[in-house]
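note to self — DONT lose this again. spent like an hour looking for the file last time. sequence + predicted structure for the chain T wanted, 186 res
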Amino acid sequence: HIKHKYKTFLITSSLENEGKSSVSVNLAISLAKNKHKVLLVDGDMRKPALHKIFEYVPENTLVEILNEDEAWKKCLVHLDRENIDVIFSTPCNDSQELLSEKFQGFIRKAKRSYDYVIIDSAPSRYIHDTSMISSLCDATLLVVQQNTTACKVINDTIYQLVNNGANVIGTIFNGSVYDFTRVRSS
């Protein structure tokens, strides 16, 4: 953070169910435990998941912020146990239309109020929303689950993100299982 001054991080993957939301939540909580002010945003407006993880039914969501120009702070939910603020989302069919200037303005405001903004997004491979959001973030991390996605698909996803202006700073290898049967003897 200090070296690069990154404040906004997009967490994505190539395909569904690679652990984006879990990684996003854990990153946000880890940063908060280190005394940082953190906002976690459910940026997946097709299949939002953060409400399931936190078992929370949101009253106001990201979709409403972008749809109605509502004051974004009205949609903040502070989770005391985790010491983070969260903006939940709900499914939305016209998400690409919402992710224009309004989302850019929202990100700008959030960066001024928080040390870090972590955005849990949709998979990048087939959903253009993520590429739009990633170009607005300081850094993008790609979650890759072991034995789930082919190398070509991962490489194509990285190429697509970078081609759309994302600053892909690395990958998070998720769901790694050590195979004890393959241990070599000396």
